[in-house]
Design a protein that fits this description.
CATH class of the largest domain: Alpha Beta
Helix content: 25-40%
CATH architecture of the largest domain: 3-Layer(aba) Sandwich
CATH superfamily of the largest domain: Zn peptidases
Number of domains: 2
Number of helices: 12
Order of helices and strands: HHEEEHEHHHEHEEEHEEEHEEHEHEH
């Protein structure tokens, strides 16, 4: 089947020989190779390509004589990864979308609405820190004035990264929103499940009901650099201690509330073994079952961090870098999808481009494919081939139903 061939083509791109994980960050050579692969696949199928200045792309299936109305069906996902990530998060939705189009064509299906296969850039936020950046810009939910001020860990500005990837964008130009409710009638994203709900249920396919609200917050702890040997413990103003207590507090608060809190990234200055640090910057990822619960959790963590900073003689500044409200997918659309295969409707705690398109006013749904490990954002992420092929069948059924 075409799915298996495409999957074999993608497997080596951006893969680490040491860990087996993937480094497919946006506007790098690996991601550019993936985009070139997608463009080649689209052209081989005679699909009409539309790409913006950042690399967001949609490959359109416009059968002869089909009216180019503004009620298109769009599917797809992303090709970028987190640092040392898994193979399935994102690419599974792109490959499945192309394979579903192949399947519909093999069966002689003729859509009465245009069908587009999309690829969005920087979904993970692994390089520039703002998750779903490509779809945010494509829908207009985030403006270029904000996006152009983003820098990666090496200090590279976003416009420079885009230009270096041979996707010319003028520094003063403002990429326009082009995936809007006036053009797109429905968006459906297929994604590997990032959890064990489907495993526990013993089913291969699920339908999303909602995305939990989530946010990324930068905690800047400032203290005083000093000698690790000659400085008495009681004389120190050590921001590492404040950070360490904050990480423990986040874990405790999240457990007590039944929510999610993770400090997964930290930077230390001067980062020397024999020096008390002067500054610690860490990033909190918080996800909760409601917007109110998210605000309460972050407030509780910040309060404990501030109290500890007072005791340690350090200071704290918290900056919300990105916050996404709860997304409830179109319930009627979810029910329609679920009825096609008697699939369960389940929530997700992970963010997706589908959530951005939903927030932009486009009726949106998601299909999940079972992940037997329940692990994601890791080389251990997996989906069995039989379940992947079941996902292609499910997506083809959905697209066929919506575009008929």
């Amino acid at each position: 089947m075409a799915f298996e061939e495409m999957w074999r083509d993608l497997q080596p791109i951006g893969r680490s020989a040491s860990s087996g994980g993937y480094f497919r960050q946006p506007w790098t050579s690996a991601e550019s190779e993936l985009r070139a692969w997608f463009l080649e696949q689209a052209r081989a199928r005679g699909l009409e390509l539309e790409m913006d200045q950042l690399g967001n792309v949609v490959a359109w299936w416009h059968p002869p004589g089909l009216s180019r109305r503004g009620d298109a069906i769009v599917t797809g996902s992303h090709l970028d990864s987190v640092l040392d990530g898994g193979a399935y998060d994102g690419p599974l939705g792109v490959v499945s979308a192309l394979a579903a189009v192949d399947l519909l064509r093999e069966r002689g299906f003729e859509p009465v609405r245009p069908i587009g296969v999309s690829v969005f850039v920087e979904e993970e936020g692994s390089r520039f820190g703002l998750a779903c950046l490509g779809s945010r810009l494509a829908t207009g939910l985030t403006g270029w004035a904000r996006a152009r001020e983003l820098r990666d860990r090496d200090g590279v500005w976003l416009p420079d990264a885009v230009e270096a990837a041979s996707l010319p964008v003028e520094p003063d130009n403002s990429p326009a929103a082009w995936l809007t409710p006036e053009r797109v009638g429905t968006f459906v994203e297929l994604h590997v499940e990032q959890g064990r709900n489907l495993v526990d249920r013993g089913v291969a396919i699920g339908v999303a009901s909602e995305i939990w609200p989530h946010g990324r917050y930068r905690f800047d702890f400032a203290g005083e650099a000093n000698h690790a040997g000659t400085t008495r413990m009681e004389d120190r103003r050590d921001p590492m201690l404040t950070y360490a207590m904050t990480a423990l507090a986040a874990n405790k608060q999240a457990r007590l509330a039944g929510q999610r809190a993770t400090f997964g990234r930290v930077e230390v200055t001067p980062n020397g073994t024999n020096a008390v640090p002067s500054h610690v910057t860490s990033w909190l990822d918080a996800r909760c079952s409601s917007d109110a619960a998210l605000a309460e959790l972050v407030e509780a963590i910040e309060k404990q961090a501030a109290d500890r900073a007072d005791r340690d003689g350090t200071s704290l500044v918290v900056t919300a870098e990105s916050v996404s409200a709860a997304i409830a997918f179109d319930p009627g659309l979810a029910a329609y999808l679920a009825a096609l295969g008697d699939w369960p409707i389940i929530p997700t705690q992970a963010g997706h481009d589908a959530g951005i398109l939903s927030a932009a006013g486009i009726p949106t749904a998601m299909l999940f494919v079972r992940n037997p490990t329940g692990v994601s954002h890791s080389p251990a992420e997996h989906a069995d081939m039989a379940d992947c092929l079941a996902g292609v069948e499910a997506l083809a059924a959905v697209l066929g139903g919506l575009a008929s």
